[in-house]
Amino acid sequence: MNTRKERQQYRSPLISAADLAAYGDPPAPGPHTDAELTALVGLLTDPGKRIGTVAIGHSRDRHSRAAAEAFTTVWKARGGTVLAVVDWPEAAASWLRPATRLTAELPHAWVMAAAPLGFAQLARRLRHSTDWDPARSYAFASLRDSRLPALAGARTLDGLRGATADGGTWDVLSPC
Predict the structure, then answer these.
(1) How many other C-beta atoms are found inside a 10 Å radius of the C-beta of residue 18?
(2) 53-59 and 81-88: which strand pairing?
(3) 93-120 burial by CB neighbour count: b if 16+ within 10 A, else e?
(4) How many CB atoms lie within 10 A of CB 14?
(5) Model pTM?
(6) What is the pLDDT of residues 41-86, one digit of tens each?
(7) Distance between CA 68 and CA 153 in Å, rounded?
(8) Contact 147, 24 (CB under 8 A)
(9) HEC string for the chain
(10) Nearest-CA neighbor of 29 among 113, 122, 137, 151?
């Protein structure tokens, strides 16, 4: 029989109903842009970075799926390796399976194309149960929502960075 500590380890750290009500529904992802894709690839290929392998995660909506497919195509065309492509539903009883699949092989970086709410749930599980590092994670513009760090929890997303639809970049910094 499992001890209480062991049961706690596997319990999904779901976002509470109170937090969901407080932060409201983040918007659904829109289509990615060419400028966004170019900026995202640029973040991973900046001088001095030696990123060759990635794991890609995406929500199951059509825009997130299309963004993940576009990134996969570009990354492979540049000679990069995609170790895994993992999707997840927007609502799940446990986020352990997609979190484990994303981190099964330790990539140089993770790339995320997702709706904010599902990603917040997944990020909580990634930080709670795996060796995932948000500072080695890159995202499409759909995750640039000011509510995302609060939904994911304190310090869960520190270092996450991404591209904007117009080709700019953003990052999540922890408060000083």
Answers:
(1) 8
(2) parallel
(3) eebbebbebbbeeebbbbbbbbbbbbbb
(4) 16
(5) 0.88
(6) 999 999 988 999 999 999 999 999 999 999 999 999 999 999 999 9
(7) 25
(8) yes
(9) CCCHHHHHHHCCCCCCHHHHHHHCCCCCCCCCCHHHHHHHHHHHCCCCCCCCEEEEEEECCHHHHHHHHHHHHHHHHCCCEEEEEEEECCCCCCCHHHHHHHHCCCCCEEEEECCHHHHHHHHHHHHHHCCCCHHHEEECHHHCCCCHHHHHCCCCCCCCEEECCCCCEEECCCCC
(10) 113
Indicate the Cα dihedral angle 167, 46, 29, 98, nearest 10°: 180
**In this structure, which amino acid lies at residue 111?**
V
Task: For residue 133, give the amino acid letter.
Answer: D
Cα–Cα dist 25/39, whole Å? 27
Task: Read off the tokens for 95.
Answer: 């986020």
Strand partners, 85: 56
Share of the chain above pLDDT 70, in %: 85
Contacts of 175 (CB under 8 A, 6+ apart): none
Superfamily of 25-170 according to CATH: Response regulator (3.40.50.2300)
| Look-up of token digits 């995932």 | 132
Q: Shortest CA distance to 119 belongs to which of 171, 59, 60, 174?
A: 59
